[in-house]
Each structure stands twice: as C-alpha cells, then as structure tokens.
Task: inverse folding
C-alpha cells in the first residue's frame, strides 16, 4: 500500500476493524517514512462469469437496471430497487464464492423480487427460467398463490392465538 502523502511503497497496519455491515475492513495505516497515518477500506471483489465465458466485476447497478425493466409501470421506487440490489449482493457474498455465473445471480434476484412485486417477479422469472408457454406462467402463478395463501393462513393463525392468549 503506497502512502498517499509521500508515495512510500510500504505501510504498517496500526488498527483493523470490520465495517458496520461486515462487508469490508477498515484499516488505519502508518507510513514508516513520513510517519503520517491514513485509512484504507478493503472489500472482497466479486466476479461474474457471463454466458460467453467473459468475466467482469459484480455491479449492483447492473442488477438495478435489469430489475428496473421488469418493474416498469409497477409501484416500485428507486429506493426499493437499491435495497433489492443490496439484499442480492449480501446473499451472494454470504456464499463465500468469489466468482458466480450470471445465471446464478439472476436466480438469486428472484426471491427478493417476489417479495417486492409479484408482477415484476413473473416478468423477470419468465426470462431467467426460460418460460416457453402459457403453462409455464400458469405454474408460476399457481406457486405464487399457494405461497400467498400459506402465508395468510399462518398470519391468521398467529392473530387467533394472540387474541386467545390476550383473553386468558
């Protein structure tokens, strides 16, 4: 690490701490030549392997742009898209892998997108899961309905149990 003040090619780490989100490390360094201190932030790089075999750095912006197309005309804000991209990146980083296929990233997007907007989810899934017929859409809609009904039944059961315990 070059000193930003005198350009000396070496530095000594004085202190290391993980950032609040745990995705990076903040290091205080001291130059042995000029004795000035400076801070560096280190993050692990993620690479995406495209279908063509080319590799490029991971980009939240690419996730946002891809999902934005699926969300066109839907009540989804830019903040929602940014949060979705953050959730996807956190999920990808938690795998511990430094290289991922673009297809795997697309599949990782599906869960948070389903929670955000079901119509956008269907649009995005139709591309990433290669829907080729109406039956593919019908099957995806059936799964969405079953999951929603299951979640509603679970919520209704919790409300009933809560009301019963409040009466006791």
Result:
């Amino acid at each position: 690490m070059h000193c930003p003040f005198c350009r000396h090619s070496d530095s000594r780490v004085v202190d290391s701490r993980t950032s609040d989100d745990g995705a990076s490390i903040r290091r205080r360094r001291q130059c042995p030549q000029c004795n000035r201190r400076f801070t560096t932030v280190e993050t692990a790089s993620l690479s995406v392997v495209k279908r063509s075999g080319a590799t490029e750095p991971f980009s939240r912006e690419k996730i946002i742009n891809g999902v934005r197309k699926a969300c066109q005309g839907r009540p989804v804000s830019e903040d929602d898209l940014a949060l979705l991209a953050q959730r996807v990146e956190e999920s990808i980083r938690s795998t511990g892998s430094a290289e991922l296929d673009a297809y795997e990233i697309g599949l990782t997007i599906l869960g948070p997108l389903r929670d955000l907007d079901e119509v956008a989810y269907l649009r995005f899934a139709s591309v990433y899961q290669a829907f080729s017929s109406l039956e593919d859409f019908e099957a995806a809609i059936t799964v969405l309905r079953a999951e929603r009904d299951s979640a509603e039944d679970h919520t209704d059961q919790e409300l009933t149990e809560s009301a019963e315990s409040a009466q006791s």
